[in-house]
């Protein structure tokens, strides 16, 4: 695994970004900005995008619920039951966001810690190597002049293309025609 400029591997840095999302939007965006400027890693970029999507999605849903709550507060005389329900939904969303971020922290933490372990190698017996006879160098054959080839009139003897009468060379392969 590649190490970041902070000295930790990429997956642990992504776990740190998700931890920053729990602390708030500012620490998360600070880590993402650092990663975008300093780190050139597709793992960190993908983790940053996922953290942004999750955090923005929950913020958007909570903002919509707050808007609905404000509308009800404006037009309803007594909406205490509605506010209790909205409070429970808000707590549920906070808990869902926290659990989602913790799951991604654990996943990336496990990947990051697992990346530091050396890979297990299996040793397989190899067949004994047989000595080979020395290879004699092969001399290249001297290029020979291409002799004109006789074929059916109007057909190239080498590639079989149709040749116009009176043509000296085949247009397809360059063979001399007689």
Number of helices: 4
The helix/strand series, from N terminus to C terminus, equals HHHH
How many discrete structural domains? 2
Spans of at least 5 consecutive residues whose pLDDT stays below 50 are: none
The overall strand count is 0
Task: Tell me the quaternary state.
Answer: single chain
Q: Could you tell me the strand content as a percent range?
A: under 5%
* Overall geometric form: elongated
Using only C-alpha atoms, the radius of gyration works out to 37 Å
Mean pLDDT: 81
Give the biggest beta sheet: none
**CA(first)-CA(last) distance:** 67 Å
* Helix proportion: 55-70%
Structural class: mainly alpha
Model description:
This protein starts with 9 loop residues before the first helix and ends in a 63-residue tail after the last helix. Helix 1 packs antiparallel against helix 2, helix 2 packs antiparallel against helix 3 and helix 3 runs antiparallel to helix 4. It is built from 4 helices and no strands. It folds into 2 domains: 106 residues, no CATH class; 29 residues, no CATH class. The longest helix has 36 residues. Helix content is 55%, strand content 0%. The chain is mostly helical.
